[in-house]
Amino acid sequence: MRALTVIPGRKHSLALTEVDEPRPGENELLVDGLALGVCGTDKDLVAGEYGWAPPDADCLVIGHESLGRVRRAPEGAGFSPGDLVVGVVRRPDPVPCGACARGQFDSCRNGGYVERGIKQLDGYGSEVWTVEPEYAVKLDPELSEVGVLLEPMSVVAKAWEQVDKVGARSWFEPRSVLVTGAGPVGLLAALIGARRGLDVHVLDRVADGPKPGLVADLGATYHHDGVAAAVAETQPDIVIEATGASSVVFDAIASTAPYGIVCLTGVSPTGRLLHVDAGALNRELVLENDAIIGSVNANLDHYAQAGRLIAESDRDWLKRLITRRVRLRHFGQAFRAGPGDVKTVVDLTEP
Questions:
Q1: How many domains does the chain fold into?
Q2: Is the distance from CB of 136 to CB of 87 less than 8 angstroms?
Q3: In this predicted model, what pLDDT tens digit does every residue of 327-337 receive, in sequence order?
């Protein structure tokens, strides 16, 4: 079978490689891959900036935004051939730490976790893959066109959960949210904000393409002139930061209303210097009871929340997030930015 592989740490090593079809363990599902979402983490892997191969291997099969169809399932696993499934990305530390022992492996304290397609476990970027039933999420068959969005939706579900938990430290009745970045994570975050009845504002760099329309159809307001313009009329109670751009991060932190919460989901590149008035930032955070939190990955509860959110959301709107579908044989195109891109998906089903 064919699989997308990289040699971690080596630039330009992305290849479509012939590998042996996996043999499922006694308690594993055998799954035919349908689609694979491509995100910034995958591009970092391809750039050689990130990633770890499995033990005793040089290559890593990439891909963590999965969608597949069960070919074979062990008896009593709760799955049947033909079921639509998504594989969970992270596995807990085998030691484990306290968080992993409680099913919160997304918040592993000692770094002993592994991740499909990222860290020491082959991913879902192959024509056939296996997964343990306890780390597989069954989807409604009608979600076949949008089910690949489940993993990014799980990340967003966790981010909003973290905001709620931090807000609950005192009286919290947010009215507005600023989402910075109109990629898949940002737009899905805006979708949840709109579902909550908040005044949603979305900031991105582009002025045209599909993003403004996607935001408008949520009943939200689209901005492309910087944070200052986006918050000119209202200070947001919540900021979901999904760009990782350092200047945007600090502008967003400075823009919130009192008791504001900034949730960082984008990862900033290292080595870029930015001059910040640390004293003023400290003063504002303390005197306004503001909070800044980071959020990454997701656990099984978040995947369950994501499944419900996708099932309950406008199917046509979700379909429009997937702006490009690339055949597996043309895999390289999926890792190059195209005009008007929101989410690019690799089709794993071509013969």
A1: 2
A2: yes
A3: 999 999 999 98
